[in-house]
Structure formats: structure tokens, C-alpha cells
Amino acid sequence: MCMSEHELAPATAAIHTKRPVLGARPISSPIFQTTTFALPSAAELSRAAVEVSSPGFYTRHGNPNHAELGDAVATLEGAERGLVFASGMATLTTAVFALVRSGDHVVAQRSMYGGSLSLIQTLLTRLGVNYTLVDQSDLSAWANACTSATRLMLIESPSNPRLEITDIAGVASIARERGIVTLADNTFATPVNQRPIDLGVDLVWHSATKYLAGHSDASAGVIVGPGTLIETIWNISLTVGAVLGPFDAWLVTRGIRSLHLRLERHNATGAAVAEYLRRRAEVSVVHYPGLVTHPSHDIAARQMSGFGGVLSFELRGGFAAAASVIEGLELFQLSASLGSVESLAVHPASMWGAVLTNEEIVAAGLQPGLVRLSCGLEDPSDLIDDLDRSLNLLAR
Ligand SMILES: Cc1ncc(COP(=O)(O)O)c(C=O)c1O
Fold it and tell me: Which atom of ligand 1 is nearest to the CA of 156?
């Protein structure tokens, strides 16, 4: 600003206040709560306008807080580049829009997060993209589902809500032989417990709303992979426009600073709670890949270094028993999310009862007696006591 402030009318001065310029570097990154950036010349503005994820042009294109988060997750996942979005679903939708077009074919596993399935079954069909859903544990099913039109394979391991395991290296090699892009949802595992890119996957995405943010206070998504694919997705992201707020990007980046420590505790508590539940007579099965009784434990042990804090289990008493158990819990709160510092529990059959019939609930793999737990960072003995109290109520 060349004019001195006393020359400015109050309305102008209110806008052109002095911005802080610090000689020292702040330890915590500033939040760049701005939608746009001023550049010193027309030439630089024109360069920034076409730069992929430019952190200094317009926040729908990029922002320094986006760049910090995208780079952090890319580093953790062993990827070249990252891109962030307003939610996990915004990430998947934008990526899929960028990678397939009408007439293409997608192969995905049958057991995955309901929102991801709904994108495939509803939106892609409308856009003229065909799909085949396969049993994720059957590598020959993945291979047999491929056609000359297959462009994309969608993996989620462990899957929501039954913690089923996909042989990630096996699927990635089937895809690679055929020139098909693989996209893996690594939300449940996090890069602390599993790195799909090391196993041959092209792109990894997260609902950063969960473990990456870790505190139930930010909705966000992130995708990482090779620069060329990220650039393709970025181009479409400009049209989809699912922009992550700079403050939410900052919150997720802050969450990531404690990810490794949090996951150590989540892993230990998840394993302890799974072991406890396995010994309860009211429980018919515990879905936790860390248990030797899990049907894909060997694959999980090969590709994961820890098994996380999310698990699910089925009650012999079905719907009524599951509803009673979650209502009897005091520390585990009834809530739809997972991966945060506080422990959460959900009974999918009652949560979806308002919109799905019993048959649809079972067809979606949501057994009436299934309960999903997300073990937080509380002392594990308190969480086990909470489950103990609630399960003991069933006997009455
Ligand atoms: C495994 C998994 N992927 C993706 C999502 C979608 O993420 P978001 O809620 O951030 O859109 C969820 C949400 O529960 C999830 O559990």
C-alpha cells in the first residue's frame, strides 16, 4: 500500500488494515483463512492460475493448509503427491469422476462402506459406467470380473463394518497386469498400520474425518498417489468444487502430528477388547483382523503392522440383544463415526432401520445382532468394564 492510512476513508481503512509480518517463524502453521491470494504481477497471476494445486491463487485450486496436509499424508503413505477435499465421500466421488467415463467398467469389492457402494450403484450407473461387485477374499473373482472396459478397481481393507480383508498385493497385481488403476480406502488402517502403495496400489484415499483428524472435530478427505493421476483428479476437483476449509485442513494436520502415538494405543486397546469379547458366551463372532480366528488373519498379518481400534461383533440374541448392549454402554457413546479419541459404538441395523427394510439390512451384510465399536484412547480397562456391565445386563 503506497497511500498512508490517514488518507484513507474509514470504510477503506477497515479493509486495508496492516497484516502482521513476523520476523520469527510461528511453530504452529498459520491458518490461511482466505479464499484468494494477491500476486505482484499479471504474469504471476497467470502462472498461478494454471499451476496444479497452487497454494497461492484461489482456495478452490489450493491453499497452504491444503498443501501441508496433502504433503503430510503423501509422505506417510509413501506417495508422490496428495490432494485434499471437504470429506471422504467428496474425495472418492471426485476421483471416480476423474478416472472413469461412460462405457467404462469398474470392479469393486461387495463389502465396503455404504457411501462408497452407493456411489458405484447409484451415481455411476446413471452416468453409464458399469460395475461388478466381487467377494473381496477371492482373487479369482477380481480377475474374472475384468473386461476390456475395466478402468478402475476399488479396494477397502479392512472393510466397514465387518473388518473383512482384501489381499491388497494380489488385487494390485491383477490390476497392474491389465493396466487398470487401483484405488484403496485406507481409512480403517491408516498409514501407520498399512501402506497400500508399498503393496502395489496406485492411489490411496482416506476419510480424514476419522483417524487422521482423530478428534471428531473436522470433516475432510485426502487422496495420494502419482503426480500424473493426482493432476487428473485435481482438474476435475475444480469443477466438483468440494473444497476443504483451511481451518479443517489445519485441524487434520494437527491431528496427524499425534497419529503414530494414538494408533499405538488404538491397536493395543482394539486387540484387548477383541480378546475380551471373544470369550463372552453372548457373542457368536468377533470381527477383528488381529484375532487368529479371523478368516483372513494371515493376509492381515502380512500386510498390516497393527490392526486398529475398530472392531465389530455379533450377539447371539440378534437385534434386541445388540440394541440393549449399545444402550447399556456408558463410556462408548452411540455415534456413527469412528477413529477418534473417544470410544464410539453403533448398531447398524437399528441406525439404518428407518430407511432400509430388514431384508435390505441383511443383504448389505449388516446382521441384526452386529455391533461396531471404535475404541478410543481411554484406559482399556475402563472400556472393558463398560462392555462387561452392559453385556451382564443381558443375562437378567
Ligand atoms: C471406510 C470409510 N470410508 C469413507 C467414509 C466416508 O467418509 P466421510 O464421512 O468423511 O465422507 C467413511 C465414513 O464413515 C468410512 O467409514
Answer: 1
Give per-residue pLDDT as tens, 354-367. 777 777 777 777 89
CA of 246 from ligand 1 middle (Å) equals: 20
Tens digits of per-residue pLDDT, 252-309?
A: 999 999 999 999 999 999 999 999 999 999 999 999 999 999 999 999 999 999 999 9
Q: First CA to last CA across the chain, in angstroms?
A: 76
pTM above 0.90, yes or no: yes
Residue at grid coordinates 430388514: 358
- DSSP symbols for 325-361: HHHH-SSSEE-S--SSSS-EEE-HHHHSTTTS-HHHH
Measure 279 CA to ligand 1 centroid, in angstroms.
30
**What contacts 121, CB < 8 A, 6 or more positions away?**
131
Q: Which element (helix H / strand E) includes 132?
A: strand 130-134
Q: How far is the CA of 116 from the centre of ligand 1 (A)?
A: 8
Q: What are the φ and ψ backbone dihedral angles of 116, each rounded to 5 degrees? A: -70, -40
Can you list the domains of the chain with their CATH numbers? 42-257 (3.40.640.10), 259-394 (3.90.1150.10)
Pocket (CB within 6 angstroms of ligand 1)? 87-89, 113, 115, 156, 160, 185, 187-188, 207, 209, 219, 221
Nearest CA to ligand 1 atom 12: 207
Taking 60 as the threshold, does the pLDDT of residue 1 lie above it?
A: no
Distances (CA, A) of 122 to 54, 55, 102, 113: 33, 34, 14, 14
Give yes or no for a cis peptide into 158 (omega within 30° of 0): yes
Strand 333-334 and strand 344-346: the pairing is parallel
DSSP 8-state assignment for residue 180: -
pLDDT of residue 3 exceeding 60, the answer is no
Of 373, 346, 195, give the one whose Cα is nearest residue 271: 373
| Best probe residue, ligand 1, of 160, 193, 366, 372 (max atoms within 8 Å of C-beta) | 160
Residues forming the active site: 60, 113, 185, 210
C-alpha 132 to ligand 1 mean position (Å): 21
Cell 446413471 found at: 126
Name the least confident of 17-21, 155-159, 251-255, 262-266.
17-21
Write the residue with the smallest CA distance to atom 9 of ligand 1: 88
